[in-house]
Amino acid sequence: MEIATIKDIAKALNLSTSTVSRALRGSYEINPETKRIVLECAEKLNYRPNPIALSLKENRSRAIGVVVPEIDNPFFSQAINGIESIAYNRGYHVVIFQSHESYDREVVNIQHLASRRVDGVLISLSGQTTHVEHLKELHSKGMPIVFFDRFSDEINTHKVVADNYQGAFDGTEHLIKSGKKYIAHLAASPTLSITRERISGYQAALEKHGIPYNEDFVKYCNFSIEDMEKVIDELLSQPILPDAIFTVSDRLAMACLKILKKRNIRIPEDMALMGFTNLKVAELLSPSFTSVIQPALEMGQRAAELLLDMVEKKSKNPVYQTVKLPTELIIRDSTKIVTD
Q1: Model pTM greater than 0.85?
Q2: What pLDDT was estimated at residue 233?
Q3: How many structural domains compose the chain?
Q4: Alpha-carbon distance 90 to 86, whole Å?
């Protein structure tokens, strides 16, 4: 296949090569509509910038680092797809590391990325990360860093997140309006920003509808089956059994479904079940899962754009943003109202 050039794109769109070049770099001088048209044409013609030539010309590595808890988590794999789609079209390679929810591994990941002299770092913090000195040190030396999904307020930089509070509020309110009064919440690590935000939304919905908050109905857990079984058994040993479970993620909800079925608890007849993320398999399960859509692809794209703008110094004095992307509740069979 013949490789397209900037000249080919310019000819196809009747634009100057300099306009096309600036649009591909995401320059603020080019209006958004022109950027969109140029990027669509670049994809159609299979245009790919040459990172090696660009790195020699600009004295940069033309590579960005990405640190995520786990690649096999479909949310993070979708976010990485979004990151790569932006980076590739702007002439950057993506170097990916996994922390496996370990603070120590996250620190080593960051050290490796620094040694490889990447141009910037995108990171979603591990479940064990309680302080970010390793990131502060890198940031103080001028390394652009952007948080996505899981973040720390200790570093003044861009953050791209879902509206976790509103998503959890909407999900919990849906369960309440479905007649549920004893709603348990399975949360992730208490140190994570997403955990705090989703618990806040859950509490707010309970308060709005006059339902007392019960600490015994909130359980923190990891993604292991052993831990999940322990948590579920604790909930089932309560004096009053929950009539619904709202989990922090679809992965937890799937594990929860498996365990509840083993204990002969029917979903949704005996207990409603809801997740957060809206994985592709959510509608294929039996019963299909009610879930809150977390826009992973868009989150990755937006985070990559902000990072590359920092790398390319589009603004000498950037105003750092916390970009909050909207969520959406998708109602399916796992929370439907069962009538006799």
Answers
A1: no
A2: 92
A3: 3
A4: 6
CB contact set of 118 (below 8 Å; sequence gap of 6+): 61, 63, 64, 65, 95
Taking the alpha carbons at both ends of the chain, their separation in whole angstroms is: 63
- Residue 26 maps to which CATH number? 1.10.260.40
Q: What confidence category does residue 62 fall into, taking pLDDT thresholds of 50, 70 and 90?
A: confident
Question: Are both 200 and 56 inside the same structural domain?
Answer: no
Task: Output the six-digit token pair for 332.
Answer: 């399916």
Radius of gyration of the chain from Cα atoms? 23
State CA 161 to chain mean position distance.
7
Residues forming beta bridges with residue 324, ordered by sequence position: 161
pLDDT over threshold 50, residue 105: yes
Whether residues 246 and 152 share a domain: the answer is: no
Q: Does the structure show a pLDDT above 70 at 47?
A: yes
**Domain assignment of residue 313, yes or no:** yes
Shared domain for 112 and 188, answered yes or no, is no
Residue 34 lies in domain: 1-48
pLDDT for 83 beyond 90: yes
CA torsion through residues 290, 215, 202, 293, sign: negative
Q: Residues 6 or more apart from 208 whose CB is under 8 A from it?
A: 173
Helices (H), 47-118: 51-58, 74-89, 103-115
Given a cut of 80, whether residue 2 has pLDDT beyond it is: no
Identify the weakest region by mean pLDDT among 46-50, 200-204, 332-336.
46-50
